[in-house]
Design a protein that fits this description.
Layout lengths: L3 H13 L23 E6 L4 E5 L5 E2 L4 H13 L1 H7 L27 H10 L5 H16 L7 H10 L1 H12 L7 H12 L2 E2 L1 H12 L14 H14 L5 H7 L4 E3 L4 E6 L3 E6 L10 H14 L14 E6 L11 H10 L3 E10 L1 H14 L5 E12 L1 H16 L3 E5 L5 H9 L9 E3 L2 H15 L14 H4 L3 H10 L1 E5 L4 E3 L8 E7 L2 E6 L5 E7 L4 E2 L13 E4 L3 E7 H10 L2 H28 L1
Parallel strand pairs: 9-10, 10-11, 11-12
Antiparallel strand pairs: 1-2, 1-7, 3-4, 5-6, 6-7, 8-9, 13-20, 14-19, 15-18, 15-20, 16-17, 16-19
Helix pairs in contact: 2-3, 2-4, 2-5, 2-10, 4-7, 4-8, 5-8, 5-9, 6-8, 14-15
């Protein structure tokens, strides 16, 4: 099944590709050669699922995005107290190449401006510059999940034109922020900025931060957990230079940009985002990159100060139609079909307030099961509501699965405005949307009928007394006698056969055609459907046990035809055939035991 997330990213890419604002960076000659038409978007979940659009694997140099990961390496190697004495964490409000140092200590104000980044590079562990570079290169590669290479031409261009950065490096040495000969560390800084990445790499690097420092695919730890929050905090306040405040207000995710056209954004515990587009705004940030992140944040509700939760919690439990069949007792043709194919009915019980990451997880679960599914029942009983963006993705998944011949239906959404309204808002004109059922049993029956019709098994059933389990074990002579005292009754669709609490009138019913529902009253009003009755099924048999009042109501869902027996007639017949009552009581006991087994199966499936 095609993912709605993928569809969304491709549509967003197509829309923003026409955005022509901004200019390619040219203060480093090699960067000025970048193709302004290149544009890629990547999004990776914390469990490693990647969604890519456009030039996701086109290589470009990481530039200042490396600052976040080298700062992370310095924290891991030296510890926060040591690093904090030499690099601050306060926003500068200045451009990326500003010489922003503390007036008393000479320490750079934060690690995301050039001064702080050069200092962080010098603090990475290593006995000399070569060892430090191996550590830096290894750290960047571990975040990406693969060995990264350096663009040597960009490195030379950076080194040959980096006069301002050389001045910064000597100033840092003057204030004893760095140790030893500063030019060796500065060359490592130029080299780290020249590392080649693609959007896919950036998204995985961001997802590693979102996943607490563990790469979501390799499962290797790239950064100690306790340092992740410090890196993300500095990215949130300083990662976008003098646009950082507006970014946090409008987009709401820790982020870092680079003049090569890249941007990473992190939503902790949920997603990592990478975008690449070389044209930059006046502050040095990718124009298309900012627009992508704004749209993702707005459309998917990804602001870091919004609700956050583990997306896997969106699915409370899952089971199949084989584990929890409908409560009707099918006749042989339907029973044989369901015995073979009922596992193709998949139930997912959803829960909580569903936003994009939760629905993305639900959709992936459906995609994993789709190859062996005929239909999905999404049980909404524990769902608090939907965001519009989540509803839009789920609706797109419904349409995609429909195209593959798989039905998606909703259960238990009756009068649930928090679910119905957002689902309704996202429907295309003329689309009636999801098929919805008041309870799981109705949904199960519909799915069972669809399943059996799809494999050629007839769901149109008729029956007589001989098909009814209550009478099937009787000798043929007794069944013939019962047919002689039975009378046929017909009930119109929507009519009530009898009501809960009414006096028992001695009638026992066997459905010969049509369908009915057994309803029990709910506390506070209304009714709960507890069973479906089809051909061959009986109801009212507790009259044989002397029950005085009806314990439930029975309503005809369609035109309903029944063979009706009266206990008084059965008692009279039993005077001539004493074994009749014994056989009927045995059948009732077996029927109650079967219902108990089925109920236990439901409980096991739901537990």
């Amino acid at each position: 099944m095609r993912s709605p997330i993928q569809t969304y990213l491709e549509a967003l890419h197509a829309e923003l590709k026409s955005l022509r604002r901004g200019n390619v960076a040219n203060y480093i000659p090699e960067l000025g050669k970048a193709d302004p038409e290149r544009f890629g978007i990547g999004l990776v979940t914390v469990d490693g699922v990647a969604y890519m659009a456009g030039d996701a694997d086109y290589p470009f140099t990481i530039q200042s995005i490396s600052k976040a990961f080298v700062y992370a390496a310095a924290l891991a190697d030296r510890g926060r107290p040591y690093v904090s004495q030499r690099i601050g964490v306060e926003p500068s409000g200045d451009a990326f190449n500003s010489i922003s140092l503390h007036p008393k200590t000479g320490a750079p104000l934060n690690p995301m401006i050039n001064a702080g980044a050069i200092a962080a590079t010098s603090l990475v562990a290593g006995r000399d510059a070569d060892e430090q570079w191996k550590r830096i290169h290894g750290a960047l590669s571990s975040f990406a999940g693969r060995p990264l290479e350096v663009d040597e031409s960009v490195y030379r261009s950076e080194s040959e034109t980096g006069f301002r950065n050389r001045a910064i490096a000597w100033m840092l040495r003057n204030f004893d922020i760095t140790e030893g000969e500063p030019m060796a560390s500065l060359e490592n800084y130029f080299r780290q900025c020249s590392v080649l990445v693609g959007c896919r790499d950036l998204a995985y690097m961001a997802a590693t931060l979102a996943n607490g420092g563990v790469h979501p695919v390799t499962h290797k730890r790239a950064l100690p957990t306790e340092e992740v929050e410090r890196v993300l905090s500095v990215m949130a306040t300083c990662g976008m230079y003098d646009y950082a405040g507006s970014w946090l207000y409008e987009v709401g995710m820790p982020a870092k940009s680079g003049v090569g056209g890249g941007i990473i954004a992190v939503l902790p515990g949920r997603f990592g985002i990478g975008v690449f587009s070389p044209p930059l705004d006046e502050k040095g940030n990718s124009v298309r990159g900012i627009e992508v992140c704004k749209r993702l944040s707005q459309d998917f509700g990804l602001h870091v100060f919004g609700k956050t939760r583990n997306p896997a919690l969106a699915v409370g439990r899952s089971y199949t139609g084989a584990e929890a069949p409908s409560r009707r007792v099918p006749l042989p043709a339907l029973r044989d079909c369901l015995a073979t194919h009922a596992g193709r009915i998949k139930y997912l019980s959803l829960q909580g307030f569903l936003e994009v990451d939760g629905i993305e997880y639900v959709i992936r679960r459906m995609a994993e099961l789709a190859s062996e599914a005929n239909s999905f029942v999404l049980d909404m009983h524990q769902v608090e509501g939907f965001s519009d963006s989540a509803a839009r993705l789920l609706d797109q998944a419904r349409l995609n699965l429909h195209g593959e011949g798989i039905a998606v239906v909703l259960s238990r959404v009756h009068r649930r405005r928090a679910i119905v309204e957002p689902m309704s808002r996202v429907l295309a004109a003329g689309d009636h949307g999801f098929l919805s059922f008041e309870d799981n049993d109705l949904a199960a029956e519909w799915c069972e009928n669809r399943l059996c019709e799809g494999v050629g098994a007839s769901t149109e059933q008729t029956a007589d007394l001989d098909d009814c389990p209550l009478f099937a074990t009787l000798p043929p002579t007794l069944r013939k006698q019962l047919r002689g005292i039975a009378r046929r009754e017909t009930f119109a669709a929507g009519s009530r056969v009898f009501g809960s609490g009414e006096p028992m009138d001695g009638r026992i019913f066997v459905v010969t055609s049509g369908h009915a529902s057994i309803l029990v009253p709910r506390q506070g009003g209304g009714h709960q459907r507890i069973a479906s009755l089809g051909p061959g099924m009986n109801f009212g048999e507790l009259a044989l046990l002397g029950q005085a009042t009806r314990s439930a109501s029975v309503h005809a869902d369609t035109e309903l035809q029944c063979e009706v027996l009266n206990t008084a007639d059965i008692d009279a017949l039993a005077l001539e055939f004493p074994q009749l009552k014994v056989k009927l009581l045995e059948s009732i006991s077996a029927d109650l035991a079967d219902k108990l087994r089925r109920a236990t199966g439901w409980i096991s499936a739901l537990a």
